[in-house]
Amino acid sequence: MSDKALVVLSGGQDSTTCLYWALERFGRGGVETLTFDYGQRHRVELECAANVARHAGVPHRVLPIDTFAALGGNALTDAAQPVPEDSPAEGRLPATFVPGRNLVFLTLAAAWGWPRGIHDLVAGTSQTDYSGYPDCRRDTLDALERTLSLGLERDIRIHTPLMRLSKKETVLLAAELGALEAMALTHTCYRGERPPCGTCAACVLRAKGFAEAGIADPLLAR
Amino acid sequence: MSDKALVVLSGGQDSTTCLYWALERFGRGGVETLTFDYGQRHRVELECAANVARHAGVPHRVLPIDTFAALGGNALTDAAQPVPEDSPAEGRLPATFVPGRNLVFLTLAAAWGWPRGIHDLVAGTSQTDYSGYPDCRRDTLDALERTLSLGLERDIRIHTPLMRLSKKETVLLAAELGALEAMALTHTCYRGERPPCGTCAACVLRAKGFAEAGIADPLLAR
Fold it and tell me: If DSSP states are collapsed to H, E and C, what string results for A136-204?
């Protein structure tokens, strides 16, 4: 393990929890954050990421990547596609799946860290929530860890502290790490609304996690 | 193996040879080409890639990626950095090394192929030439193949027909595949000059390959 960590910060609940996990493990001076501007429909996410990083007192950098918008055909970047409100049918990938996106983000994060001597990456991916994205599963990230270590000639580690946690457990972890105040600055709503719509799949999942943890969502208390 | 292949085409000698390799193996109707516009200093490369694809009669698409230029600090995209003329010292990575670039390109190629049912990628990487890029080695690409197959839930293959060939053998393969005429359309010079400067490391390596194969370089015969 190197003594510096790079947190891939989306501005959402999960990556914010990961930032506080990294702060506890690597210390404030050992943590940087990176957000990808991939042409997301909801620009508020970028603002939320910057606010979270500022609140936590760590450096924050936005890296552009225009490729996914050019690929098109996805509900998260393509305004012509509706964002689905329900989970996909069993065995089908969700309409919000952008093939390879998480792999590209983590590879670019490693590339960003490389000249800075940062070999520990932290990502808020989880295989227990409903998303079903295959590039968020731990076996995929184990393979990526090996790929990056070979391809960059460094011992790259991808930390995924939320990988096997339920949303309830993630909320409890955030409370334990002192990340609840920062939660008020995060963004979750798939419709990009603030205050959140409360009815899209992402809002419903978030609300369920806080309810089951018995903690009021600071975002709604504002 | 799927019945369609996607060739990552840089407009250079190696990827052009790979295109003809793919044509032989997958047939003209089974081959598409993809070039990344990553902000390369020498825009002529993009033009060469388009000319090669047109000459071969296959579809060609340019995908933008603005991230590497934003990362900066590299001789291939950063005009402030000189392109080195010599090979790097033993055990050191070359100044033209862009961390993770080949991994990102292949991941995005797989993402481009995914909705099109293309699971066979072809890349002109070689571990026998002087480049020493760790993300071009076969062990790295084996790991990436596994990562992509898990992360995209498809049986992705990365073909690297030149991996263990010398430059001489690559030239002989190009001749065997009927790719020599297309060689006149390719670009190799690190200085971006046409006709090529003949003295940069890339020009010298190309010349050596043709000389050892006993074949005149069609690019110089024009």
Answer: HCHHHHHHHHHHHHHHHCCCCEEECCCCCCCHHHHHHHHHHCCCHHHHCCCCCCCCCCCCCCCCCHHHH
